[in-house]
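Reminder to self: C-alpha coordinates first, then the designed residues, so the page reads top to bottom the way the pipeline ran.
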Protein backbone atom coordinates (compact mmCIF):
# COMPACT_ATOMS: atom_id res chain seq x y z
CA UNK A 1 0.00 0.00 0.00
CA UNK A 2 2.87 2.42 0.80
CA UNK A 3 4.48 1.69 -2.60
CA UNK A 4 1.15 2.40 -4.29
CA UNK A 5 0.84 5.70 -2.45
CA UNK A 6 4.43 6.65 -3.29
CA UNK A 7 3.76 5.80 -6.92
CA UNK A 8 0.64 7.96 -6.92
CA UNK A 9 2.54 10.84 -5.28
CA UNK A 10 5.30 10.59 -7.91
CA UNK A 11 2.69 10.48 -10.65
CA UNK A 12 0.91 13.54 -9.24
CA UNK A 13 4.21 15.40 -8.86
CA UNK A 14 5.04 14.65 -12.51
CA UNK A 15 1.59 15.89 -13.55
CA UNK A 16 2.13 19.07 -11.55
CA UNK A 17 5.49 19.66 -13.25
CA UNK A 18 3.92 19.12 -16.68
CA UNK A 19 1.18 21.63 -15.84
CA UNK A 20 3.74 24.19 -14.70
CA UNK A 21 5.81 24.01 -17.90
CA UNK A 22 3.17 25.13 -20.44
CA UNK A 23 2.21 28.02 -18.14
CA UNK A 24 5.79 29.18 -17.68
CA UNK A 25 6.48 28.70 -21.40
CA UNK A 26 3.38 30.71 -22.19
CA UNK A 27 4.42 33.46 -19.80
CA UNK A 28 7.97 33.55 -21.13
CA UNK A 29 6.97 33.48 -24.78
CA UNK A 30 5.57 37.01 -25.10
CA UNK A 31 8.50 38.49 -23.22
CA UNK A 32 11.22 38.06 -25.89
CA UNK A 33 8.97 39.42 -28.62
CA UNK A 34 8.19 42.46 -26.47
CA UNK A 35 11.91 42.96 -25.91
CA UNK A 36 12.57 42.72 -29.64
CA UNK A 37 9.98 45.40 -30.31
CA UNK A 38 11.52 47.65 -27.69
CA UNK A 39 14.99 47.20 -29.14
CA UNK A 40 13.80 48.53 -32.50
CA UNK A 41 12.34 51.70 -30.99
CA UNK A 42 14.76 54.63 -31.11
CA UNK A 43 15.95 55.22 -27.56
CA UNK A 44 17.17 58.64 -26.54
CA UNK A 45 19.78 58.44 -23.82
CA UNK A 46 19.55 61.32 -21.37
CA UNK A 47 22.45 62.34 -19.14
CA UNK A 48 22.50 64.93 -16.37
CA UNK A 49 25.50 67.19 -15.89
CA UNK A 50 26.62 69.63 -13.23
CA UNK A 51 28.84 72.68 -13.59
CA UNK A 52 30.70 72.96 -16.92
CA UNK A 53 34.46 73.35 -17.11
CA UNK A 54 35.74 76.90 -17.63
CA UNK A 55 36.71 75.98 -21.22
CA UNK A 56 33.05 75.24 -22.04
CA UNK A 57 33.18 71.45 -21.85
CA UNK A 58 31.71 68.82 -19.54
CA UNK A 59 33.61 65.84 -18.17
CA UNK A 60 32.02 62.60 -19.34
CA UNK A 61 32.90 61.02 -15.98
CA UNK A 62 30.65 63.48 -14.15
CA UNK A 63 27.59 62.67 -16.30
CA UNK A 64 24.83 60.73 -14.58
CA UNK A 65 21.91 58.71 -15.95
CA UNK A 66 19.78 59.98 -13.07
CA UNK A 67 18.86 63.47 -11.96
CA UNK A 68 20.69 64.50 -8.78
CA UNK A 69 18.86 67.11 -6.76
CA UNK A 70 21.26 69.91 -5.83
CA UNK A 71 23.91 68.80 -8.34
CA UNK A 72 22.31 68.45 -11.80
CA UNK A 73 22.08 71.62 -13.86
CA UNK A 74 22.12 70.45 -17.48
CA UNK A 75 20.21 67.77 -19.37
CA UNK A 76 22.09 66.27 -22.32
CA UNK A 77 20.22 64.17 -24.89
CA UNK A 78 22.41 61.95 -27.02
CA UNK A 79 21.63 62.10 -30.73
CA UNK A 80 24.34 59.60 -31.65
CA UNK A 81 27.15 57.69 -29.99
CA UNK A 82 29.29 60.84 -29.72
CA UNK A 83 26.82 63.69 -30.41
CA UNK A 84 24.25 65.34 -28.21
CA UNK A 85 22.02 68.34 -27.66
CA UNK A 86 21.87 70.00 -24.26
CA UNK A 87 19.96 72.58 -22.27
CA UNK A 88 19.60 73.81 -18.73
CA UNK A 89 17.29 71.35 -17.02
CA UNK A 90 13.82 72.80 -16.44
CA UNK A 91 13.51 71.70 -12.81
CA UNK A 92 13.33 74.55 -10.32
CA UNK A 93 16.30 73.24 -8.30
CA UNK A 94 18.47 73.07 -11.45
CA UNK A 95 17.64 76.66 -12.36
CA UNK A 96 18.27 77.92 -8.81
CA UNK A 97 21.63 76.15 -8.79
CA UNK A 98 22.58 77.62 -12.17
CA UNK A 99 21.57 81.13 -11.09
CA UNK A 100 23.75 81.04 -7.96
CA UNK A 101 26.93 81.47 -10.01
CA UNK A 102 25.89 82.28 -13.60
CA UNK A 103 29.47 83.16 -14.59
CA UNK A 104 30.58 79.58 -13.76
CA UNK A 105 27.38 77.57 -14.26
CA UNK A 106 25.90 79.22 -17.36
CA UNK A 107 28.27 81.50 -19.29
CA UNK A 108 30.80 78.84 -20.44
CA UNK A 109 28.14 76.89 -22.39
CA UNK A 110 25.22 79.30 -22.94
CA UNK A 111 24.63 82.60 -24.67
CA UNK A 112 21.87 84.76 -23.22
CA UNK A 113 19.33 86.60 -25.34
CA UNK A 114 18.98 89.23 -22.60
CA UNK A 115 21.10 90.54 -19.73
CA UNK A 116 21.34 88.57 -16.50
CA UNK A 117 18.84 89.83 -13.97
CA UNK A 118 19.55 89.10 -10.27
CA UNK A 119 15.76 88.75 -9.77
CA UNK A 120 15.54 86.06 -12.46
CA UNK A 121 13.99 82.83 -11.21
CA UNK A 122 13.43 81.11 -14.54
CA UNK A 123 15.59 80.29 -17.56
CA UNK A 124 14.00 79.45 -20.89
CA UNK A 125 15.98 77.59 -23.51
CA UNK A 126 15.46 79.30 -26.87
CA UNK A 127 17.82 76.99 -28.77
CA UNK A 128 19.50 73.84 -27.49
CA UNK A 129 23.27 73.67 -27.59
CA UNK A 130 25.23 70.96 -29.39
CA UNK A 131 28.08 68.91 -28.01
CA UNK A 132 30.45 66.21 -29.21
CA UNK A 133 32.18 63.57 -27.11
CA UNK A 134 35.97 63.75 -27.55
CA UNK A 135 38.57 62.10 -25.31
CA UNK A 136 36.27 61.80 -22.29
CA UNK A 137 34.83 65.32 -22.57
CA UNK A 138 31.64 66.71 -24.05
CA UNK A 139 33.04 69.56 -26.16
CA UNK A 140 30.53 72.30 -27.00
CA UNK A 141 30.12 72.87 -30.75
CA UNK A 142 27.42 75.49 -30.31
CA UNK A 143 26.25 77.13 -27.10
CA UNK A 144 22.65 76.94 -25.96
CA UNK A 145 20.67 80.15 -26.33
CA UNK A 146 18.74 81.09 -23.19
CA UNK A 147 16.54 83.85 -21.82
CA UNK A 148 16.46 84.99 -18.18
CA UNK A 149 12.95 85.52 -16.84
CA UNK A 150 11.49 86.63 -13.51
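Designed residues (150 positions):
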Amino acid sequence: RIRDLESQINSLNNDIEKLKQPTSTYLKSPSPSNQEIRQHEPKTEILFLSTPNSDGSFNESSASNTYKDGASIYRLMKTGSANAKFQIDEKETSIKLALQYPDKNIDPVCDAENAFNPRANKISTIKMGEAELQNGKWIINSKALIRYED
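The chain has two domains: 2-40, 46-149.
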